[in-house]
Amino acid sequence: MKMTRNILLLGVLLLASGCGFALEQDGLASAETLVVEQCDVPSPFEMNFNFFAYSACNDTVQLRFQGDGHAMVNSDGVSIQLERFGRLADALKSGPVTVTLPDPDVEFSVYLNHRCFENYVTLNGISGTVILNQLDPGDGGKLDIVADVALVNALNGDEATSNLHFEAQGELSSATPHRDFSVCPR
Hints:
There is one protein chain. The chain is built from two helices and eleven strands. It is mainly beta. It has one domain (about 25-175). Strands 1, 2, 3, 4, 5, 6, 7, 8, 9, 10 and 11 form an eleven-stranded mixed β-sheet that branches. Strand 9 (about 140-155) and strand 10 (about 160-170) form a beta hairpin. The chain starts with a helix and ends in a 12-residue tail after the last strand.
């Protein structure tokens, strides 16, 4: 009885702290080959997501997609940062918005801080498309995003080494309990 109560209490605390995840989340990033010189990454590469989070400040929205609710420095995931979000939000009222990279208002990156824990690898999107079918930033906001992006290792080059397919559908939660770096300057 006491152990059951402790497990229930732990579950409530995890959900209250924002570390829970919603079962309706569905996200995937995949590549036939993901070239990462700093660590071994399996081929084909696949990363499933069940934790979708956002951070917002002024007219910037950062989206984070992970398989867990841990801090970025301990996780693998995808980050999409949208500058001048008001412009995109207005365009989304008329239907899906396709952004062609490079775009000064959109940054797409893959971080491999768990798989490549000794090197903290980041792969940046340098070309491709990001399609925003739906995006309502805020707790419980709906999103539907698909992207096909060429990636480059941020540490050693300008030429694309991998092509990544990304898709996510679900609800957002605040990244505040998990955020290491604020979107806004302090």
